[in-house]
Amino acid sequence: MVPQNLAQFNYQHFLRDRNIYLITFEDEFITLKSSNSLIRYAETARASVIQIYKELQITNQNLAVLVALTLGDKSVLDSELQQQYAGAMHILAVSGLHVGIVFLIFNFLLSKLPGSLSFRIIQTITLLLVIWAFAFLAGLSPSVQLAGWMFLFVIVSKLLKRNSNVLNSIAMSAFLLLLIDPNNLFQVGFQLSYSPVIGIVLIDPVVYKLVYCPNWFVDKFWILLVVSFAAQIATLPFTLAYFHQIPNYFLLANLSLIPLAFGVVLGSVIIVSLFILFNTDFYLAQILDYLLTALNKSILFVTEIPGDMSEGIWLNNLSIIFLVSTIVFFLVLIYYKAIRALVLVLCFIIGIQITEIVISHKALQNK
Q1: For residue 160, what is the DSSP state?
Q2: Whole-number pLDDT of residue 292
Q3: Using an 8 Å Cβ cutoff, are 49 and 63 in contact?
Q4: CB 216 within 8 A of CB 235
Q5: Angle at the Cα of 60 (from 57 to 61), degrees rounded to 5?
Q6: pLDDT tens-digit series, residues 7-27
Q7: What pLDDT does residue 326 have?
Q8: Is the per-residue pLDDT at 34 higher than 70?
Q9: Which of the two ends of the chain, N or C, has the fewest CB atoms closer than 10 A to its terminal CB?
């Protein structure tokens, strides 16, 4: 199990991070499933939702993308779809984006209730139940739990009529997840869940204010660009360290994919609710199918552009540390306009260059 090649996947460390130190093999085994477990209920609910999708005549690639997008189950994606979405897998991975869409939908519906305390309590309880039911349905991945805890704090603070600090909510959710399982800190999913959210919270407000857009449409266009840029910058060290690649057209992809993903999640919530309540979708499933087709064609268009992905980028661990330090002090620079921070940013960038030059030189000396 010890890797023999340079930078080979270390399965031993992978198991160690999950507190697995011994493995055994058996040819014959029986799988026991408790009908009363919460996981079993979630599996049954997911299967019921997938069956509804099938009854509404959503099939093939559209069905696979819809299941991944709304339920977090990417096992149904074939190799072709996985290759197409390689640079935009965050769209299919159920995360804060999807939980946020569900929150916006039901918050809008419940905002029409009177503003008395009793109705605000009903609104709070309903929103929390909906969000955590969706999170549970999606498998309670770290990204979904992050979003669930964040919205919990936001909703409760709204009930108490107090302003909530987003960074405090992020920190509290991370504390709770690490309290349950400290090994979450070493999981790629955990790191790639928190880094973009922190990046958006810290970078987006500053960069967004650099350009004033009086036109509503242009302003939304600018918001998407800034959010995509902030998330990409924050996740850059992790994507390079784990996947050694960078999507070159992530800004172009997100401009079309995020609005379409919003429409797909919104449409799926509507048609599933209508089907459960009235046993019909009122022909809205066809619109959802069109949105899924547009989503697949959009990602296919981006991936077919030459040079859509920069691959084979191998940085030394020291270079990754320098890169993280560069981003941190870049944030210090844009917030506090400190000249020392600019000097440190330049020093860390030079440090990356020197480190990679030295490593490349040593590699050339060896066969």
Answers
A1: T
A2: 86
A3: no
A4: no
A5: 120
A6: 667 788 778 777 788 888 877
A7: 93
A8: no
A9: C
Residue extents of the structural domains in the chain = 38-314, 315-367
Answering whether pTM is above 0.85, one says: no
What tokens were used for 166? Answer: 């987003």
Contact 246, 313 (CB under 8 A): yes
| 183 within 8 A of 17, measured Cβ to Cβ | yes
Q: Is 128 in contact with 158 (CB distance < 8 Å)?
A: no
Please check whether residue 67 is in contact with residue 50, taking contact to mean a CB–CB distance below 8 angstroms.
Answer: yes
State how far the Cα of 103 lies from the Cα of 133, in Å rounded to an integer.
12
At residue 247, φ and ψ (nearest 5 deg) are -70, 125
pLDDT in tens, 224-255: 888 888 888 888 898 888 888 888 777 777 77
From CA 228, how far away is CA 222, in angstroms rounded? 10
The closest alpha carbon to 132, from 110, 113, 155, belongs to 155
- In the predicted model, is pLDDT for residue 339 greater than 90? no
- 114 within 8 A of 146, measured Cβ to Cβ: no
Q: Please classify residue 268 by burial: count the beta carbons closer than 10 Å to its beta carbon, then call 0-12 exposed, 13-18 middle and 19+ buried.
A: buried
Specify the amino acid at residue 224. L
Question: What length is written for the chain?
Answer: 367
Contact between 101 and 266 under an 8 Å Cβ cutoff? The reply is: yes
As a whole number, the mean pLDDT across the chain is 81
